Amino acid sequence: MARITASIYTSHVPAIGAAMDLGKTHEPYWQRMFSGYDFSRQWMKQHVPDVIFLVYNDHATAFSLEIIPTFAIGTAGEFPVADEGWGPRPVPKVIGHPELASHIAQSVIQDDFDLTIVNKMAVDHGLTVPLSLLFGQVDAWPCRVIPFAVNVVQYPVPSGRRCFMLGQAIRRAIESFDAPLNVQVWGTGGMSHQLQGPRAGLINKEWDNRFLDRLIADPGGLAGIPHIEYVREAGSEGIELVMWLIARGAMADVAGGASPKVAHRFYHVPASNTAVGHLILEN
After folding, report:
1. List 125, 227, 268, 278, catalytic entry
2. How far is CA 116 from CA 69, 173, 177, in A?
3. Each residue of 58-116: pLDDT tens digit?
4. Which end of the chain has the smaller Cβ count within 10 Å, N or C?
5. Residue 125: active-site member
6. What 8-state DSSP symbol labels residue 220?
7. What is the pLDDT of residues 39-66, one digit of tens each?
8. β-sheet with 71-74: strand ranges across
C-alpha cells in the first residue's frame, strides 16, 4: 500500500521565486532566508518521494472570482506553469499522478468531503515556489505532484478544523491505494502577512512561532483556532495557514501512531514584507 513518509510546510512568497529565477539568492537581503533551506535540500536528496500531494492556493490564475472551489484536486497527467502577468516562471512543468489523484478524489468524496475535480489547469507560484525551495533549479521535478488548491482568497474559507479533518481523510485515501508509493504531503502558504489596508506589512513573530509549536505538539487544539484570530493576529493573508493543517492532519500520530520527528524547523523575516516559516516532519 502507499504510505505517507513525511509532511513539509513552507511559505510560498512569489518574490522568493523571482529571487531564484533572477539569480539573487546570495544577495544580502535574501541570503539568510535561503540558507534556512540548505538542510532541506540535502534532506530531500535522501528522501525523494514518488509523489507529493501539494496543498496550496491559486492566485487568480486557474480560478477567478467567477468560480471559486473550496477544495480542488488536480487529476491531470501534467500541469503547465501559469503566466501570472510577467510570463511563466522558468521552471519545469508539473507531472501529475492521475491514478492516485483519482483514487484520492473517490475516497475523500465518499468520506463526505466535497472536492472539485480539475482535469486541466495551470499552476502558479503557490505550487512552484515550494518545489523550487526544496529541489532547487532543475530541468525536471524529480517526482510526480498532485496539486490540491484550497480557497483562502475569498470568504467564506474553510475552517482549520475542516482542513484538519480533510487531512485525515486524505491519509486514509493514500494508505488505501494499492501500490507501494512513497508519498509526502506538503502544506504551503503563510505565515503572518497582510498585503493591503492600514495594517499592510503586519508580521507577528510571537504568534507565528506559537503556531509552529502547536502544529508540532498540539495539532488538534490548533485546528480549533477561529478565523478571526488568524486575521487579527496574523493579518488578512495569515489565513493561508489553515492549509498547513491539511498536511498535519495526514500524519500518523493523528490516527494513533507515534509522534512525528522534527527533522528541520526554520523561521525568518522579512521576505517581501512576509514572514517565512518552514518545517519538516517525518512519520
Report:
1. 125
2. 6, 16, 20
3. 999 999 889 999 999 999 999 999 999 989 999 999 999 999 999 999 999 999 999 99
4. N
5. yes
6. H
7. 999 999 999 999 999 999 999 999 988 9
8. 116-118, 71-74, 144-150, 51-56, 182-188, 3-10, 276-282, 261-268
CATH code of the domain made up of 3-282: 3.40.830.10
- 55 vs 228, 231, 270, 271, CA distance in Å? 22, 20, 23, 21
**In the 8-state DSSP scheme, what is residue 201?**
T
CA neighbor of 223 nearest in space, from 250, 200, 259, 192 = 250
**What residue type is assigned to position 247 of the chain?**
A
Q: Give the span between the Cα atoms of 226 and 144, in whole angstroms.
A: 34
Catalytic residue at 264? no
Domain boundaries, the chain: 3-282
H or E element: which one contains 104? helix 98-110
- What distance in Å separates the CA atoms of residue 115 and residue 101, rounded to the nearest whole number? 11
Residue 152: all three cell numbers together = 483562502
Strand partners, 241: none
